[in-house]
## 1
Amino acid sequence: SREQQQVILDRWIKDKFIERIDYTLVFQIVFISFVFISFVLLGLFLFWNRKLANEINLRKEVEKELRKSDFHFRSLFELSPDPAWIIDENRFVECNHAAIAILGYKNKEELLNTHPAGLSPICQPDGEESFSKAERMMALAIENKVHRFEWVHKRFDNSEFFAEVTLSLITLNNKRLIYCAWRDITERKEVEHELDVYRDNLEERVEARTQQLAEATAEAERANIAKTEFLSNMSHELRTPMNAILGFSKILEMGSDRLDESQLSHVREIIAAGEHLLHLISELLDLAKIESGNLEIELENVSLSHLLKPCLAMISTQATAKGIHVYDRVSDKGFFVIADADKLKQVFINILSNAVKYNRDDGEIIIDSEVTDNSILRVGISDLGNGISVQEQKKLFTPFERLHTPSNIEGIGIGLVITKHLIESMSGIISIESRVGEGTTFWIEIPLSDR
């Protein structure tokens, strides 16, 4: 039957396999497997234990550094000269001694656990309530890590002051806090307010000052016009009687056979004084013409040799009287320049006359020239006088400014002023080189003619 066949098959399998199994070998395999698994587990345990120990040591080092950092932070916090707070959940939880002293409190217990708006007026200067503004400022500090703004604080005696506040997000003892540092800026705000007031009034002040300057300028122009007209009128008015005096004096000189030596000497003194006064009147008239803009210039080709000879002749008598030798190194070179002949002659006469007046006895006058690359003729007139200091050179072309000169040298201090105006009206330049005790050279630059 089927059951008998199954029994026979089970018996056959048992006889063929199970009875042949070597139980010693099986035991060895199981033992070795157990030992191997034990060693693996032990290795894993030792590895994990070592890793855990390293993490514990690292954590201890970190905690040690954190305690050290916290100590340093608290030391700096307490010793800081600027007042500072530590804020946690919108409450002051720590403050330094500087904050207590500036706010006028006795101890920190009176300040801690207070909302930042509690040490402030109800509203800030911008009109925002202190409580809501403080909340908004702290939110900005948390969002941006750092936030700076201005704030009005209130002291223990209810006096108020401006402060510049800086909020910084920090971590202390694994807790996120806000570090608040501030400083009194009341003086700065007062200065800013003064500047604002000054700026607001500045436009009015500038307008008023401009009006004053315009009035002063107009008054100066009127005074200058009046002065110019006076000089011009007086010069014309003085010339007529002066010419009469000179005319009658020369008539007397012509009848010298009727005069004795004393009388003739007096007549000649009258003539010399009159001619000097007439020269001064002419200078004043020239200055009046220059300042009024009525000076007429007619440019033409001028022979320098023909122009210099009469100028040298006019100063020759004065130069000979002082034993001064004149060396003309220009006339024979045949230069032609573009100028007004009469005005240029006046320029040379003024400079040559000064070279004689301010020269030393038995001195020299040297007239020399050079041509520059841009077709300009430079004529130099040098003397061996006392020279002019740098300080006095700055005043040389100022009207009626007389330098420190011997009292016997005549003049009113406008000759060089007129000379400068005349040469510049002909597109020329006048300059000076001088050394005290060695002498002076006046340089005149005038355009050369292409003739």
## 2
Amino acid sequence: VYVFWLTIQADPSNTGNVYLGGDSVSSSSGIQLAPGDSHHFPPISRYYVYNLKNIWVDVGEDGEGVKYIAEQRY
């Protein structure tokens, strides 16, 4: 799925951190989000710049996760 912009939020009920990055993301690399924190991938000058399959998520505790909102342009 290609999106124009994207915001990912670590679930506020998480007890550990969430890590965002590419396919090699881990708790020692990537963008670190504490519970409730979010990261915004802003729009860039063209459509469909973010491919969701290239954004990976790793969590510090099993069963925890993220929420996200994104916009597609047609």
